[in-house]
Amino acid sequence: MRSSLFFLAALCLESIAALPQKASSNPISSTQHAKVDTRANTYQDHAEAALDRLQQWYNHDTGLWKSYNPSWWQSANALTTLVDMVQTGSPKAKKVADTVIPNTFQAAGAFNVREGHRLKRAAAAAAEDNKVEEKKNPYSNGYYDDMGWWAMAWIKAYDVTGNKTYLATAEALFADMTTGWGTNCSAGGMWWDKKHTHIDPIADTLFLEVAAWLANRVPADKKSHYADWAVRAWDGFRRSPMYVSGEGEHYVTAGISVKTCRLGKNPHGYTYSNGALVSGLVALSIATGNRDYLQEAHLIAHTIMKIMSKDGVLREPNIDQAHPGQAAPQFKGVFMRGLMRLHAADPRPEYRDFAQRCADSIWDKNRQGDAELGPDWNGPFHGPANASPHSSAMDGIVAAWRMTK
Q1: What is the radius of gyration, based on Cα positions, of the chain?
Q2: Which residue in 133, 225, 260, 283 could disulfide with 212, CB within 3.0 to 4.6 Å?
C-alpha cells in the first residue's frame, strides 16, 4: 500500500509539472521547498557554488557552455542540470535560468544553423560530410542522440516556464528522431546517426525517454501517440543484444556492429545509457499506469550501483579516469538524474545513500579551488576542467540534495 501511495503521488506531481505555468511578470515559476536538515543545506550550498563556476563557461553569444568542441550535446545536459536546480528549489538557479533559458533557445539554435546542422563531438565532426537537410528545427542535426539531449532539455525548460514553444521544439525533435527507427539489425530499434554508420544504445534509450516524457505533457489527444512510441521502443530494445536481463542483473551494454549485429568491446556499456533508460521507464510507468516499467527501472538502478561503482561511488567502467576522452566526462550525471527521478517516483533509502556518497566524494575528493569539479568522482581532481565534467558532477550533488530534502 505504501509503495502504491508513493506511485500515485509521483503521478500527481508529474501531471502538475506537465501543466503550463500561469503567466506572470516572473518568467519562471518554482516552488520554494523548506529545508529539512543541515545536510540538505550543505548540498544546496555546494550546488550553488558550482553553478557560479559553471556560468563562467557560458557563452552568451552562442548560448553554449564551453566544454569539448563544439560543446553541443554537452550544453543540452548543462541546461538540464540548471533546470533541475530550479525545480529542486534554488533561488540562485532560478535567477540564472530566467536569462539563460530564453537566450540559449535563440542563440544555440542560431549557432547550429550557422554550422549547417552538422555539430557533433570533435572526433566525429572531423570526418563528417553530412549533407542531410535539417531546416525545420534549429536543434536538429545528423545524430539522433544529440536531438534526444536537446529534446529533454526543452521539455525540462517547458516544465519550469510553461512556454509551449519549448515543448513544440521537443515534439519537432522527436518527429525527426522517428526517422531513425528501424536498422539493418532490428526493425524495432534506432540508428545512432542519419548516415546509418553506427548502432548505439544511447539513441534507443533517449528515444524512449523523450517519447515517455512527452506523453506526460502533451494534450490528451496526443498522449497515446507518444506513449505508443515509448512502449514500442522498450519492447524492441529489451529484446536486443544491447540489453541484458537475467541472473539478477539488468543493464544496457555497448553498441552493436552494423556488419555483424553483435555486441562491441564493452559488454557493460556506460552509465548514461542506463540513466536515460531508468528515467524513460519511470515516465512510461506514469504515462501508462503500469508499474512493471517502474520495477524494471529499479532492477537497472540496483545493477548499476553494484557493477559501476568503486567504494560506493559511481564510476565509468573501462574508462581511464585521468584521461576519459571527450564524451565520458558527461556520462555519470545522466545516471544520477535517472536515479533521482526513480527515487521521486518510488523512494528507496539505498538511492539516497548512494547519491549522498557520490556527492560527498565529489566535493571532498574531486574539487579544485572553491568549486571546480572534475571527471573522477573518487578523486583526485584531474583537469583541465570544463563545463562537461563539471555539470555532470553537479548532477550528482543536485541528486543528493533533492533526495535529502
Answers
A1: 19
A2: 283
Are 188 and 236 within 8 A, CB to CB? Answer: yes
Q: Which amino acid is at 185?
A: C
Query: Which amino acid type is present at position 356?
Result: Q
Prior bond of 267 cis (ω within 30°):
no
- CB count in 10 Å sphere of residue 125: 16
Q: What is the pLDDT of residues 20-59, one digit of tens each?
A: 333 333 444 433 444 446 899 999 999 999 999 999 999 9
- The answer to whether the CB of 378 falls within 8 A of the CB of 366 is yes
Residue 246 pairs with which residues in a beta bridge?
A: 249
DSSP 32-73: PPPP-SHHHHHHHHHHHHHHHHHHTTEETTTTEE-SSTT--H
Task: Give phi and psi for 263, each to the nearest 5.
Answer: -65, 150
pLDDT digits (tens, 9 = 90+) for 208-223: 999 999 999 999 999 9
Q: Measured between alpha carbons, how far is residue 77 from residues 15, 81, 109 in Å?
A: 23, 6, 15
Q: Is 192 exposed, middle or buried (0-12, 13-18, 19+ CB in 10 A)?
A: buried
Euclidean distance between CA atoms 260 and 251, whole angstroms: 22
Given phi > 0 = left and psi -120 to 50 = alpha, else beta, which region is 63? left
